[in-house]
Automatic annotation (TrEMBL):
Binds 1 zinc ion per subunit. This is Phosphoheptose isomerase. Belongs to the SIS family. GmhA subfamily. The keyword Ligase does not apply. Substrate binds at N50, G51, G52, E63, N92, D93, S118, T119, S120, S123, Q170. The reaction produces a racemic mixture of D-glycero-alpha-D-manno-heptose 7-phosphate and D-glycero-beta-D-manno-heptose 7-phosphate. It is found in: Cytoplasm. It comes from Rhizosphaericola mali. The lineage of its organism: Bacteria, Pseudomonadati, Bacteroidota, Chitinophagia, Chitinophagales.
Length: 191
C-alpha cells in the first residue's frame, strides 16, 4: 500500500509543478491557439512517438478525428505510425529513423502542426520528423521529459515535463494533450 501511495504522490507532484509553472500554462494556451488556427485554415495535425508515446499519439489524434466531448465534425488529425505497411517498408528499405520524416515530407504542408512525443526528447525518428517539419514551415510542438533533448531546439513550443521518470512524463503528456484537445474543441465548436 505504501508503494502505491508513493507512486500516486509522485504523479501528483509532477502535475503540481506544471500547475505552478505559469510559463508552462501559457504555452498550453499558445499551443491551443496554434492548433485552432491550423484547423480553422483546413490544415491538419500530425502526431508521432514510439512505444507508449506512439500509443499516446494515436490516442490524442483520435480525440480530434473522433470526438472529445462534443458530437461535431471530424478534425484532420492522425498518428503517423498507424499505416503498418508504410512503416515496415520504410524501416526496411531506408531506416527506422526515417519513418516519420518521410511521411511528414510527403503529406505535411506549411501551416500544418506536428506534435512529437518523446520522453527523452532524443528519439531519432521523432527528431528527424521535427527537422523536416521545421524546413517545411510546419508548426512543431514537442512533448518531452525534463531536459527537452534535441527536440528543444526543434519545437516552436516545448512541453518539457519536470520529471526524468518515463511513466510520470507520459502521464503528463496525456494530461497536456487532453487539455489541448478539450480547449481546441470548445473553441472551434461553441454551443
Amino acid at each position: 500500500m505504501e508503494k502505491i501511495s508513493s507512486l500516486v504522490a509522485e504523479s501528483i507532484d509532477v502535475k503540481t509543478k506544471i500547475l505552478k509553472d505559469e510559463a508552462f500554462l501559457l504555452n498550453i494556451e499558445r499551443a491551443v491557439a496554434l492548433v485552432v488556427d491550423a484547423f480553422s485554415k483546413d490544415k491538419k495535425v500530425m502526431f508521432c512517438g514510439n512505444g507508449g508515446s506512439a500509443a499516446d499519439a494515436q490516442h490524442l489524434a483520435a480525440e480530434f478525428s473522433g470526438r472529445f466531448y462534443k458530437n461535431r465534425k471530424a478534425l484532420p488529425a492522425e498518428a503517423l505510425h498507424c499505416n503498418t505497411s508504410y512503416l515496415t517498408a520504410v524501416a526496411n528499405d531506408y531506416s527506422y529513423d526515417d519513418i516519420y520524416a518521410r511521411l511528414v515530407d510527403g503529406i505535411g504542408f506549411e501551416g500544418d502542426v506536428l506534435i512529437g512525443l518523446s520522453t527523452s526528447g532524443n528519439s531519432k525518428n521523432v527528431v528527424k520528423a521535427m527537422e523536416v517539419a521545421k524546413n517545411k514551415g510546419i508548426i512543431t510542438l514537442g512533448l518531452t521529459g525534463i531536459n527537452g533533448g534535441q527536440m528543444e531546439d526543434l519545437s516552436d513550443i516545448l512541453f518539457a515535463v519536470p520529471s526524468k521518470v518515463t511513466p510520470r512524463v507520459q502521464e503528463s503528456h496525456i494530461l497536456i494533450g487532453h487539455i489541448i484537445c478539450e480547449l481546441v474543441e470548445a473553441s472551434l465548436f461553441e454551443d
